[in-house]
């Protein structure tokens, strides 16, 4: 059986969380310390050339390797072990129930047999792993097992990038699971650990918005919608004749014409609010649930001025931009104001880095 680096395996060595997305590379390194027992040691990002990563697939390994090397230099990290993330759409997961008295070899064989029912590829074409979650409900003596599988070449591409950049791949996680770990940590800081609250997490990336609705840390609903910050970037390119790189830079740091907010930003924010509202309605019609208690915004778009207010206004649900670094101490050389403004984009990288402390 191909090792998928065990979704939930414990790792204690210094570990970098490496997030490879369509728009760029982000890394996070954590250490013990701070109010919550964690300290942010390093974080850094590096943009990727257009087309280097498309729909979660690495199309130009050399460009991605160069970007990883650059971000490592920026961060100053000396850690070599790395946790990588796979896009949720690239991984098939399934919970199955197996007898609890199986040996490890017997369970591995049984998992392979079960996998044939759920995976539309030959087993020699996939990287497959499993983890025993715990006793199965309503089935005495059985255990619940989480099976995860991805096309082998997709896993190998990420491993090849890390190794070419001088890193040692140690953990391969699923991006949505990494984000969920961060949300769990944030919820534990609320009264009663946030128990009973239904939280909708919207990770608004450059091209895709990933939606997870969670109750007590468990996913009730997950979905991806083709909406992201690149739509605003392309509108800027068309309206003002800029390159995509220049448009992205000015979108983030200013320098656009005075009419930008009225002509482009406000319509984009309206569209974002519509997408969020639509996703919530899909959740209501697809599940028995009829309420959302909190909306959390993350991803590079989450910090766009006005987004929180318009989403809260349209949905009538309390809405906040979340920082994965809330409650953490900061390592030497990290500027609190910079971290605060960029933090929502580091959700997945932070969740990956947290695997060091599982």
From TrEMBL:
SUPFAM superfamilies: Actin-like ATPase domain (SSF53067). Gene3D superfamilies: 3.30.1490.300, 3.30.420.40. Residues 15-183 form the SHS2 domain. Transmembrane segments: none annotated. SMART domains: FtsA. This is Pilus assembly protein PilM. It comes from the Bacteria. InterPro entries: ATPase_NBD (IPR043129), FtsA/MreB (IPR050696), PilM (IPR005883), SHS2_FtsA (IPR003494). PANTHER family: CELL DIVISION PROTEIN FTSA-RELATED, ETHANOLAMINE UTILIZATION PROTEIN EUTJ. GO terms for biological process: cell division. Pfam families: PilM_2.
């Amino acid at each position: 059986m191909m090792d998928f680096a065990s979704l939930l395996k414990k790792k204690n060595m210094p570990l970098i969380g490496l997030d490879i997305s369509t728009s760029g590379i982000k890394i996070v390194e954590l250490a013990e310390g701070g109010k919550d027992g964690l300290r942010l040691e390093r974080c850094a990002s590096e943009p990727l050339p257009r087309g280097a990563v498309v729909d979660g697939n690495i199309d130009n390994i050399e460009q991605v390797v160069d970007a990883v090397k650059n971000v490592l230099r920026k961060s100053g990290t000396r850690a070599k072990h790395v946790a990588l993330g796979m896009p949720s759409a690239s991984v098939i997961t399934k919970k199955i129930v197996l007898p609890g008295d199986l040996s490890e070899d017997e369970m591995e064989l049984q998992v392979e047999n079960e996998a044939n029912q759920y995976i539309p590829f030959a087993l020699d074409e996939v990287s497959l792993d499993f983890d025993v979650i715990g006793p199965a409900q309503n089935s005495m003596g059985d255990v619940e097992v989480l099976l995860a599988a991805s096309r082998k070449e997709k896993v190998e591409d990420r491993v090849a990038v890390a190794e070419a950049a001088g890193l040692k791949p140690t953990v391969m996680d699923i991006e949505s699971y990494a984000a969920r770990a961060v949300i769990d940590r944030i919820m534990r800081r609320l009264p009663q650990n946030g128990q009973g609250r239904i939280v909708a997490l919207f990770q608004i990336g450059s091209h895709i918005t990933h939606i997870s609705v969670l109750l007590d840390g468990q996913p009730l609903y997950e979905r991806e919608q083709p909406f992201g910050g690149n739509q605003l970037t392309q509108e800027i390119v068309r309206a003002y004749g800029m390159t995509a790189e220049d448009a992205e830079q000015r979108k983030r740091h200013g320098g656009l014409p005075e009419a930008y907010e009225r002509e482009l930003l406000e319509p984009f924010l309206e569209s974002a609010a519509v997408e969020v509202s639509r996703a919530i309605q899909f959740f209501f019609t697809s599940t028995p649930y009829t309420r959302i208690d909190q909306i959390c915004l993350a991803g590079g778009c989450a910090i766009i001025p006005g987004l929180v207010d318009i989403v809260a206004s349209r949905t009538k649900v309390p809405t906040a931009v979340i920082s994965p670094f809330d409650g953490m101490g900061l390592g030497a050389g990290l500027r609190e104001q910079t971290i605060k403004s960029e933090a929502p984009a580091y959700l997945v990288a932070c969740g990956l880095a947290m695997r060091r402390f599982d």
